Structure formats: C-alpha cells, structure tokens
Amino acid sequence: MVGEYTFRGQGAAEIAASIEQAIDQGVLPPGTTLPPMRELATDLGVNPNTVAAAYRRLRERGVIETAGRRGSKVRPRPVTTARDAIRLEVPPGVRDVSAGNPDTSLLPPLGKALAEAADRYARQPMLYGRAPIDDELSRLARAAFDADGVPDGPVGLTSGALDAIERALVAHLRPGDVVAVEDPGWGSLFDLIPGLGLRPKPVSVDDEGPLPNEVEAALRQGARAVIATSRGQNPTGATISPQRGRELRAVLRNYPHVLVIDDDHVYGLTELPLQPLAGSTEHWMLVRSTAKAFGPDLRLAVLTGDAVTVGRIRGRYRLGPGWVSQLLQHTVAHLWRTQTLDITAVSASYAARRNGLVEALAARGVIARGRSGMNVWVPVTDETWSVTRLMQAGWAVTPGARFRLNSAPGIRVTVSPLAVHELPGLADAVAAAVRPDRTARFE
User: Fold this and answer.
1) pTM for the structure as a whole
2) Adjacency order of strands within the sheet including 375-379
3) What is the pLDDT of residues 209-235, one digit of tens each?
4) How far is 239 from 273, CA to CA, in rounded Å?
5) In which element (H, E) is residue 191 found?
6) Which secondary-structure segment (H or E) carries 140?
7) Rounded distance, CA 293 to CA 415, Å?
8) What letter would DSSP give residue 369?
9) Phi, psi of 157 (to 5 degrees)
C-alpha cells in the first residue's frame, strides 16, 4: 500500500496492470517510490519472484525505474502518462513561450495544396493494394536528400519523425540495448527509449552538436545506436558544424555495426547547411518531418537510409497503419513542388527573434544558447525558482527537466510567439529570474 492505494493481483501481469492503472489515474504520481519487492509479495501473498517479474515488465515498458538499493519508483514521465497531463498550466494573462510550436503566421497556406490533393484523389483514390508512396513525393524527397549530400538510399514515409525513429530502433535493437542520445535533448525521445525496453546513454551537446569524445565513449561502452539532431536541436538550437560533422563521422566509421539516426526535424526552417552523419556505418537513417515547416497536423515524415533499414521500416509499417494518407502525401508534394514556403524569409524571421533574445540576455550578463531553430536554452541554477519567478512576471517557460538526463539545469524559451519589440522585456524578466534574490517572497 502506498498512501491510500492498495496493490492487487496474484500474477505478474495482474500486479503490473494494477500499478500501471494507479499511475494512469494519478494515484501514484511521478517519483513515487514503490514498495520493496519482498514487502509487496508478503502483502499480496505471492512469491517475491512474481513481484520481481511485474516490476521488470513495468521497467521494460518505461513506466518505472530502478535505482539499486534505493528501490523502484515511478519515472518522472512514465510512458503511461498522457503528454497533455504533464504540460505546464498557463494562467490567463501570462504569455506562453513554452509550447515549442511554430509561428502560425509563417506556415504556408494549405488551401491550394489541399484542393489539388482532393482533386487528384477524386481522379484516383487510394485503395488497398496500391503503392504506398506517391511517386512525385518520393522523387522530390530524394532530390532534396541528394542536394544536401545525403547518401543514396530508398525513400520511406512515416507519421512523423518520432514514429520513424521508433521503427528504426525496433528494426535493429533488442530490449536492454543502449542508445546514445543528446543531453540536453528531445524529451519525447527520452520517454520512447525506455518505453522500448532500451537504455539511454547521455552525450553532451554544445552549439556544434554532440561531443565526439563522448560519442566515442558511449560506443566503447556498448551503445548499439546513436541519435543526433542535424539542425535546430531541441532544446539548445545546436547545429552540427562541418568540422564537427567530420569528427563524428570519423568516430562512427570505427563502429560499422552501429545504427546511426539523423533527425533533421527543422528542414524548411533554417538555411544552415546539413552535415549528415548518414552513411558512416552499415545501418543508418535520416528523417525529415514536415510538422515544423508546414504545421504539426501535417503528420508526415520522409526518410532515407540503407536498404535493410528502410526495408524493415516499410515492412512493419505495412503490417500496421499500411501507408501514410495519400491526401497528405499529395499536399506535401504540392507544397514542395510549388516552393510555397519561403525558407529564406522563415529562417530570417526565427533568427531575428532567437538571436535578438540571446543578445539581449548577453547584454544583461546571462548566457543563453540558440544557434538555430525556434528555441533558446538558458542555463539556470534552480529551475523551479526560475520558472515560478517568470510566471509571476507574466512569462510561461518550459522547465529544463523535460529535456535533461544528466546535464545541468536550464529553461527553454520558444521564440515563435514573440515580436522583436518584446525581447527586451522578456530578457529583463529572465535575467531577474536566473539571478534571484533569495530573500524575495512569492506573492
């Protein structure tokens, strides 16, 4: 019993389901320590091995984590927890710079693209048994990959970048394998990896991407996969530089059996050149999402990779969803073919706000990072204090704990909703929040 909750079950599956239900209902919040296995076994009248098996199931699904003698506890973001349930609540009157959404005014109009897609669909609707990938979209995607120096490979589609990453990991790894990930890094990826029964190995990131010596250390320690963000890294804005790209590729070539995944999720938002790691090893994938450039509801990502990896992803996709909607495929093909999105203007708009905030903070003695993308990362001493102070000042930012494994605390600011004239006021509030007067009282 934890608090007022009584665990139930006689078998491992029943016990695990009882714990998972309590977590899903919020009865066992993140961080709750679970009873020792022998104690729970005595309470339920079962063998301790049965409870051990239940805990193992929950751990492999990313619901709980075990810290040696300190026991098992509910993960900070268990995979059973809906993302909406852990979002920052923004009170009325507070500016929300926490959500990580693109600037809707920079998204291209979809009317003509959707109308053309509907017209094509009327002439030739998608039916069972037809090719899952539109020929035009495949050609356009491959041409863009070629222009950016991505090695030759077949093209595949998934419903977003995270979907592609999950399928690539499942295609090559087994539960217990280690995955090298950027830290700070994408919070959803930190949830996905343990949810697949895999183990994350954090690798530090600077403005030029993952540190080569830490990538090599992770590989020496047995990492079976490396996931790197090409540009617009979330949350720091890091972009792999030409020199860093050469260094990372040199490291990876010494580990030819490792799976390498390039995440180019901000394709269409930045003019910084791509430095792909793709092709450094036998198995690789580079994925591009349309969500940031065309809108989060356009759930489509194009990918390429070695024939084995792409073939496995395609095969598993056919066994599940079958294909990505042809209406979406035709829509994206139209947007790419007509070059509806002005990448130069979009990139400049985000850069003006991002660089403006970084410079305004620097003028106030605050170091911040934001080389590309739509976010600025600000190191802080105390995330809770800083987030609370900023909320009182009228700004909702994201606590860095969502993006960290072992790295130092920070806060993430999304610049998308901001106008340039608002940057000085936000910089004043951030500077006051990261250098707090500990004698101050919260109202």
Assistant:
1) 0.85
2) 375-379, 410-414, 398-399
3) 999 999 999 999 999 999 999 999 999
4) 9
5) helix 187-195
6) helix 135-147
7) 15
8) B
9) -130, 145
